[in-house]
Each structure stands twice: as C-alpha cells, then as structure tokens.
Write a structure and sequence with these properties.
Blueprint (H helix, E strand, L loop, with lengths): L12 H14 L4 E2 L1 H10 L2 H7 L14 H13 L7 H7 L4 H14 L6 H6 L2 H8 L4 E5 L7 E5 L3 H20 L5 H11 L4 H9 L8 E2 L8 E2 L2 H14 L4 H4 L14 H8 L3 E2 L2 H8 L6 H23 L10 H11 L20
Antiparallel strand pairs: 1-6, 2-3, 4-5
Length: 357
Amino acid sequence: MNTFAVESPAKNVVEAVRSSCQTFVEKSPVKISQKGIEAFLSKLDKAEYEELAYDATMKMPLKFETVNDELNFVTLIDLINFGSGYRVPLHELAGRGAFDTIRFGAMYFHIGGKPMTAETFKDITILDVAEMFQFPIDREVRHEKLDFVTMTEPTALKPFAAGLTKVLNTTGDYLVARGYKDLAEFILDHVKKTPQDASSLVDHFVHAFPGLADCYQFPEAQDPVYLYKKAQIIVYHLWFTFREQLPDLFDFKDIDTLTIFSDNVIPTMLAHLGIIEMPKEWQQDIENHLELSVQTATTLRAAAVVACDEIVKVARAGLGPVQTMTTGGLDVYLWRVGKVGDYRKVPRLQLRDTVMF
C-alpha cells in the first residue's frame, strides 16, 4: 500500500509528525512565505472562518442504535477516505467525487445492513467493494479485429477498488487476530485505559493498522517523514462527535496538539493563497493535472503541516480576527473553503498511488 513506508515511532507520533515535517521541508525546494501568512490572516473574514471551521461534513442525518455503531461508522469513513487522485474517473464513471463515494460506501454498510465487523472487513472482496461503493471495475470492449468478440478490461477505478479492499482486509486481519469484534471495541478498549488523550489514541491507531502507514523514507533523504493524516483525523472526528456524548472518554484535553490532516486540498489552497512557494515545474504539473511523484506530493503535504502550524502561531499571537485558531479548525476551514466558488476550480495535486488521501 505504501512502498516507502518505514517503522512508526514507538511513541509521541504527533510530535514526530511535527518535527519530521519541519526537517524534511527545510531540506526541500519548498518555502513557507511569512508575507503570505500575514496577508491571509489580515484578510480573513471571522464570520466565514467560524462557519467553515465547523466540520459539518461529519453531521449526517443518520440514526444509530448504539454508540458502538456510530463509533464504527465515523471511524470507517476516515479509515477509507482516500482516492482523491481518482476524482476525474469517479465523476465520469460513478457521478460522484472521492469523498462522496466514500460516504456512499459507508452508508451502504449502515443502511444496507452490512455489519461493520472485523470478520466482514477481513473477508470483503474487490467485487463486494465495487457493488457497495457503486462504481465499475471492469468493462466490456470490442475486440480490435473480431467484431463479434468482446473482451473484458479493467476500468481506471479498479486500482482504487483494490486499495479499498486491501485497507479493509488488513484492518479486519488485525482486529480478528487480537480478538476485537470491530473498530469500536478497539477504540473503547484504549480510551477506557487512557481517557481524554488524543495523542495516545493516535499512537494506538498508527501502531495497529497498515492502512494508516502515512510515513516515508525516500532513498536520497537522510531522515523519514511522518504525516499520519488519517490516524489524526479519525481521532479529531471521534472528539468532534463524542466529546459531549461521552466526555469522560472523548473530550480530549490535548486535541489542539494534533497537526493538520494534510491531503491534496490543503497544500493546493496554501499555494493558491501564496503561503506555500514551490518550484515552477511542480506548479505546472499540478495545473496540467499531471500525476506527481510520491516524494513531490509528500513534500507539499509536509509543507502544509509546517505552514499551518505557523499560521496558528501567528494568529494566536494577535494577527487577524481569529486569535483562538487551532490546527483542527484551520484544516477544516481550508478544506471546506477549497470546495466553495472559484476555489473549487483551483487545480489540486494529484496522486493515485496512495491510500492515504
């Protein structure tokens, strides 16, 4: 799933993300513009920020019979929330973008009566995924020379389906091997032992599931770089959803120590806002909708982590109208504003060979 993956830090994963991204970006051709940060904060509309920094995308009109059912649903969405590089073929073949496709599949589990259990994940097949997420993985084409003969060939979405299958299978394998019925049991087992601790729960997720191995050692780089976007956003959404229902467990006191959840949208928005400065050839590749290398995409994602930490630091020091800014709120704001109006037309970095975003 990630050919550049390295062993995760033994503990303090969030701090390893922050420090490794700083080191990695310092040695890269990407720069963070202090002037860009100051201009962004000076022009920031407080009312718009406060509206868009609230993660309304996770508020869906669904009813859950138990807390465990809702825990499973929230966690599943973030666990399999990738496929941004397949945005164009998804719109062409399924009529939905990547995130809407993931939500559709998660709702199939919930509404269609498919149990979100370890055994289900362990045994799910690529054909099951294609049916549940409602997109084609094969198509019939006419033989080049024999008009009366048709052949089957994979669609552009088959690798995406294979990635979803692999993430679900490896998650199920881990849970079954350790006697957990589902993701909810895995989560509750940890938060009951270490309540109200976001960083500890991130560590717990990262050390468990291969589908969260958002870590890279590139051949010419001296040190690894860690991002762990999905592990952190799972924990953020567990806090967001359950901090009032189950405050003794999920009202994480250190929630604001998480980094942003760096994907393809946040670096693109920061570059468009003049905060991230990248080599001209990288910018041209993005504008021409060309696939980036894993290392280039990782560099830009790491730069977004560093830039957003600096934005929050400057905002909390008094610049701009939002002096209580957090990394989580800033991430949600940038992601949501990137889906609005002309910002939606801004080309985003593209990478298909990943199950991380």
